[in-house]
């Protein structure tokens, strides 16, 4: 297994570009501020995953080829074309997809000749 390490200056620059103090970066990465200090001064090697996670949490990159160009900043997900999505819009998109799945299932049932559901109402009052 190959291990990759990050240069202290690169990590420090990334943290500063993200507008994070050492304490804030430590809280995000679930390490101590002393660990961040050690990484940035060359006192300890910086794991690649810590650097990658700081890039993700700092809004600079998401993992994987499929997410290339996508970023997260504050409470918004930004597409490569600049369009953003917040939690509310993502919920609405999920609802549209759920309705589309139901519609497709209904079309598939009608195409196969599957019996349609019948609604029975009691007219006695």
SSE diagram, text form:
Blueprint: E1 5-6, H1 8-17, H2 22-29, H3 33-40, E2 46-47, H4 48-57, E3 71-73, E4 76-78, E5 84-85, H5 87-111
Antiparallel strand pairs: 1-2, 3-4, 4-5
Helix pairs in contact: 2-3
Summarize the structure.
This protein is mostly helical and 125 residues long. 49% of the residues lie in helices and 10% in strands. It starts with a strand and ends in a 14-residue tail after the last helix.
Averaged pLDDT, please? 85
Helical run tally: 5
Q: What is the number of strand segments?
A: 5
The CATH fourth-level homologous superfamily of the largest domain: lambda repressor-like DNA-binding domains
CATH topology of the largest domain: 434 Repressor (Amino-terminal Domain)
One letter per element, helices H and strands E, the order comes to EHHHEHEEEH
CATH architecture of the largest domain: Orthogonal Bundle
Keyphrases for this structure?
mainly alpha, 49% helix, 5 helices, 125 residues, two-stranded antiparallel sheet, single chain, 3-stranded antiparallel beta sheet, 434 Repressor (Amino-terminal Domain), elongated, 2 domains
């Amino acid at each position: 297994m190959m291990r990759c390490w990050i240069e202290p200056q690169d990590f420090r620059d990334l943290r500063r570009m993200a507008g994070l103090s050492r304490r804030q970066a430590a809280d995000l990465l679930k390490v101590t501020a002393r660990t961040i200090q050690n990484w940035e001064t060359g006192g300890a090697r910086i794991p690649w995953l810590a650097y990658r996670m700081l890039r993700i949490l700092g809004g600079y990159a998401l993992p994987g080829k499929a997410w290339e160009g996508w970023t997260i900043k504050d409470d918004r997900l930004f597409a490569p074309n600049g369009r953003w999505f917040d939690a509310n819009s993502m919920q609405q998109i999920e609802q549209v997809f759920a309705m589309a799945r139901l519609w497709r299932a209904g079309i598939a049932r009608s195409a196969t000749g599957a019996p349609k559901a019948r609604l029975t109402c009691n007219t006695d009052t």
